[in-house]
Write a structure and sequence with these properties.
The chain is an alpha+beta fold. It has three domains: 78 residues, OB fold (Dihydrolipoamide Acetyltransferase, E2P); 132 residues, OB fold (Dihydrolipoamide Acetyltransferase, E2P); 211 residues, Chloramphenicol acetyltransferase-like domain (Chloramphenicol Acetyltransferase, 2-Layer Sandwich). It contains 14 helices and 27 strands. The strands form seven sheets. Strands 17, 20, 23, 24, 25, 26 and 27 form a seven-stranded mixed sheet that branches. It has a four-stranded antiparallel sheet with strand order 1-8-6-3, with no helix packed on it. Helix 3 packs across helix 6 and helix 11 crosses helix 12. The protein is elongated and about 95 Å long. The relative contact order is 0.09. The chain binds oxidized coenzyme A.
Length: 550
C-alpha cells in the first residue's frame, strides 16, 4: 500500500480547498495523473499523482480544506507496473519509509503505537566553537512520551540559554543526564523507544495531540531533508543516528508544542516567525517579539487584512434584500495583496499617449507570419518586447526595495507579468526570460499562460518571479486608469483602448491611432523625471516599430 499525500504547494502555502476530485475508489491511478483540482490563496492547481496503483481509499471530498502533508488517498501497488521507490523518497514521511507500513487506514484521529527500535538522543551541535554546555533543566523523565521537536533540555552555553529540541519521537527509557551536569556535544542524553512519527500513542497529553496534526501532515523530500540534516548536524551523522531519526523537515517550523500553541492563540503563523535558537528554533520570546513587531507595523497600514481596524458595516438588509457569499481564495488574496501594495507604496501615476498607427500596420502585416507561428500578435505582444528593452535601459524599474535593510535589489533577469481577466478574478501570470525571445514567442507564451489562467490550470511557478507588470484593459475599453503597483515590483504599465483621434501634424489634422498609457510607479525608488523618461522611451518605441523591430 502506498499513500499519496498533498505535496508542498509553494512558499507559505499550508492548505488549499478541494474544488474537484478527478479520481475515484477502484480507479487505476498512474504516476503524473491529475488527482485533484485545488484552490490555494494564489491559484487553482491540478495536483498530479506521484504514486501508481489501484485506489483503495480516498480520504477527502470536494469542498474539503486539505493541508499540505495530509493523506489524500491510498493505492495498492501490487497491480501496478513496476514503479520506482521515488515516491518514498519524495513524499512519504521519512520514518514511515524506514519501518514497514501496515495496511491500516490512515486517519488523523487514529492513535496507535508501533515500535521502531531503540534510538538515542544525543546533544546536537550547539554552534560554532561550542563543545559543551551546562544543563539547567531536564524537561522530560523516564516514561514520558515525546515527539520530535519537543523541548527536552534547557542548557546554558557561553553565549545563550537554549531549549534543545528532540530529534526523536517515542517513549523515554533512560535519561543519562541531570540538572547541573556539564554535557558535551555528541553525548548521549536519552534512550528512547522510537514511535512512528505519523502515529501518536494514546497516552499523550492534549498538547501533543494538537501537535500530531502538524507533525504528521508535514511532507518532506526525504533525500533532501536528510542531506540538509547531515549538513547542519554533523554530530548525528558521526553517531550514525541520521538513519534512525526523523529528518529535519525543510518546511516544518522548529518549535516546542507550547510555542506553537502560543502562536496559534495569538493567531500568527508559526512558519513565518524567525527563530533565534539553534537551527532557527523558535522560542516563546521569538513569538512574542514577532507579534509585537507585527502590531507596531500594523498601526501604519490600512485595511483589516493588514491590521487596521475596519469600520463596522451597516446592516444592509435594512435597505433591501441582500445575499452574502464567501470570497474565493484568489479574491481574498488579491484583496490582501492590493491593500498591502496600496497602503505601503507611495504611488504616482504618469499618463502619456503613443501613436500606434504604424505599429498597427506592422501588426496587420505580420498576421500571416504570426499564424504560421501558431499565434496572433496584439499590442500586448509588442509591449512585452518593448518593456523588456526599457527595463534594460532603466534598471531602477527592474528593482525591488528592501526597506528593512535599506537596500535596493536590482535584477539581472527580466520576467514580465501580464494581468489576465478571468472568471475567478484577476490573475497575473509571468512570462519568463523575456530578453532574447521573438515577438511571436512572447505572444505564444503569454497566450498559453492566459489560457491556463482562464482554465484554472495555472501552476504556482507561473505566478512567481515577475519584475514588472503590464495590465492591458484596452481590449475591453476605457481611456486611462491608475493601476496599482504589483508589490514587490516597483512599476506597472496600464494600457487603455487605442482609438483614432485627430492629431495636428505637418500643418493639418490627421487621423491617428492613439494608445493611452498609464505608468504607476513606486515614488520611493523612481522619481517623476525618471518615470516620464521611461514612459517617453516606451512611447517612442511604439511609434517607431520598424526601427524597434530591426
Ligand atoms: N487598444 C485597442 N485594442 C486592443 C487593445 C488596446 N489597448 N488591446 C487589445 N486590443 C485588441 C486586440 O488587438 C484584439 O483585437 P483583434 O481581435 O482585432 O486583433 C482584441 O482587442 C482582443 O485582444 P486580447 O485582449 O484578446 O489580447 P491582448 O493580447 O491584447 O491581451 C490579455 C491579452 C491577457 C492582457 C487580455 O486578454 C486581458 O485579460 N486583459 C485584461 C487585463 C486586466 O484585467 N487588467 C486589469 C488589472 S487591474 O484590475
Amino acid at each position: 500500500m502506498k499513500e499519496f499525500i498533498l505535496p508542498e504547494l509553494g512558499e507559505n502555502i499550508e492548505s488549499a480547498s478541494v474544488l474537484n476530485i478527478l479520481v475515484k475508489q477502484g480507479d487505476y491511478l498512474k504516476q503524473e495523473q491529475p488527482v485533484l483540482e485545488i484552490e490555494t490563496d494564489k491559484a487553482t492547481i491540478e495536483v498530479p499523482s506521484n504514486v501508481e496503483g489501484l485506489i483503495k481509499d480516498l480520504f477527502i471530498k470536494e469542498g474539503d480544506k486539505v493541508k499540505v502533508g495530509q493523506v489524500v488517498l491510498r493505492v495498492e501497488e501490487s497491480l501496478s507496473a513496476e514503479k520506482p521507490t521515488q515516491v518514498e523518497t519524495k513524499v512519504v514521511p521519512t520514518v514511515e519509509t524506514k519501518t514497514e507500513t501496515k495496511d491500516e487506514t490512515p486517519s488523523s484521529t487514529m492513535q496507535k503505537q508501533s515500535t521502531g527500535g531503540i534510538v538515542e538522543f544525543i546533544i546536537p551541535d550547539l554552534g560554532e566553537n561550542i563543545q559543551s554546555a551546562d544543563i539547567l533543566k531536564v524537561l522530560v523523565k523516564v516514561g514520558d512520551v515525546i515527539q520530535k521537536e519537543d523541548g527536552v533540555l534547557e542548557i546554558e552555553t557561553d553565549k545563550a540559554t537554549i531549549e534543545v529540541p528532540s530529534t526523536v519521537s517515542g517513549k523515554i527509557l533512560e535519561v543519562f543526564i541531570k540538572e547541573g551536569d556539564k554535557a558535551k556535544v555528541g553525548q548521549v542524553a536519552l534512550r528512547v523507544e522510537s514511535v512512528l512519527s505519523s502515529e501518536v500513542p494514546a497516552q499523550q497529553n492534549d498538547i501533543q495531540e494538537e501537535e500530531k496534526v502538524e507533525t504528521t501532515q508535514t511532507p518532506t523530500v526525504k533525500t533532501t531533508a536528510k542531506v540538509e540534516e547531515a549538513k547542519i548536524n554533523p554530530v548525528l551523522q558521526r553517531a550514525g543516528l541520521i538513519d534512525t531519526q526523523p529528518a529535519i523537515l525543510p518546511h516544518a517550523a522548529p518549535a516546542a508544542p507550547s510555542v506553537r500553541r502560543l502562536a496559534r492563540e495569538l493567531g500568527v503563523d508559526i512558519n513565518g516567525i524567525p527563530g533565534s535558537g539553534i537551527n532557527g528554533r523558535i522560542s516563546l520570546d521569538d513569538v512574542k517579539a514577532y507579534v509585537k513587531r507585527l502590531n507596531e507595523n500594523r498601526s501604519t497600514f490600512s485595511g483589516s487584512s493588514i491590521g487596521i481596524k475596519t469600520e463596522s458595516l451597516p446592516d444592509f438588509s435594512k435597505f433591501g434584500n441582500i445575499e452574502r457569499k464567501p470570497m474565493s481564495n484568489i479574491r481574498s488574496k488579491t484583496a490582501d495583496h492590493l491593500s498591502y501594495a496600496w497602503a505601503t507604496i507611495p504611488h504616482v501615476t504618469q499618463f502619456d499617449k503613443a501613436d500606434i498607427t504604424d505599429l498597427e500596420k506592422v501588426r496587420k502585416g505580420l498576421t500571416s507570419s504570426a499564424e504560421k507561428e501558431g499565434t496572433k500578435l496584439t499590442v500586448t505582444s509588442f509591449l512585452l518586447r518593448i518593456i523588456s528593452e526599457a527595463l534594460t535601459e532603466f534598471p531602477q524599474f527592474n528593482s525591488s526595495i528592501d526597506m528593512e535593510r535599506k537596500e535596493i535589489i536590482y535584477k539581472n533577469y527580466i520576467n514580465i507579468g501580464v494581468a489576465v481577466d478571468t472568471e475567478n478574478g484577476l490573475i497575473v501570470p509571468v512570462v519568463k526570460n523575456v530578453i532574447g525571445k521573438s515577438i511571436f514567442q512572447l505572444s505564444k507564451d503569454m497566450n498559453e499562460l492566459a489560457d491556463k489562467a482562464r482554465r484554472r490550470k495555472i501552476g504556482l511557478e507561473d505566478l512567481h518571479g515577475g519584475c514588472f507588470t503590464i495590465s492591458n484593459l484596452g481590449g475591453i475599453g476605457g481611456t486611462y486608469f491608475t493601476p496599482i503597483v504589483n508589490s514587490p515590483e516597483v512599476a506597472i504599465l496600464g494600457v487603455s483602448r487605442g482609438s483614432f483621434e485627430p492629431v495636428y501634424k505637418d500643418g493639418e489634422f490627421v487621423p491617428r491611432l492613439m494608445l493611452p498609457l498609464s505608468l504607476s510607479y513606486d515614488h520611493r525608488i523612481i522619481d517623476g523625471a525618471d518615470a516620464i523618461r521611461f514612459l517617453r522611451w516606451v512611447v517612442e518605441a511604439l511609434e517607431n516599430p520598424y526601427r524597434f523591430l530591426l
